[in-house]
Amino acid sequence: MANVNQVTLIGYLGQDPKVSTTQHGIKVARISVGTTERGYTTRSGQQIPDKTEWHEVVLWRQSAEFAERYCKKGTQVFVQGKLRHRSYVDKDNQTKYVTEVEADDFQ
User: Fold this and answer.
1) pTM of the model
2) Is the dihedral of CA 23, 55, 31, 78 positive or negative?
3) Which residues contact 3 (CB under 8 A, 6 or more apart)?
4) Which of 2, 29, 55, 95 is within CB 3.0–4.6 Å of 19 for a Cys-Cys bond?
5) 2-45: per-residue pLDDT in tens?
6) Are the beta carbons of 54 and 32 closer than 8 angstroms?
7) How far apart are CA 102 and CA 57, in angstroms?
């Protein structure tokens, strides 16, 4: 069986894109995409509330430029990409772990 690392998200931006440029002149944008599972009522009448998950997404080059021009908080987006895990050491010498989606397709 083949291995696949693919994420597909359809959701809404929780804030405006954070856009920067690398030292090599490449645009990169970071966005936060919210996806919501709708709540429901069980047969016994118990109310299950909506559940929203937030996903951090990294956009490169043309996708970052598109997000900078046309996207703002509340915009619905479609993202396909790969799940990435990384770590870094903060200013207090604490190791922080990050999980994010590196976008291949962004609309």
Assistant:
1) 0.85
2) positive
3) none
4) 29
5) 789 999 999 999 999 999 999 999 999 999 999 999 999 999 99
6) yes
7) 6
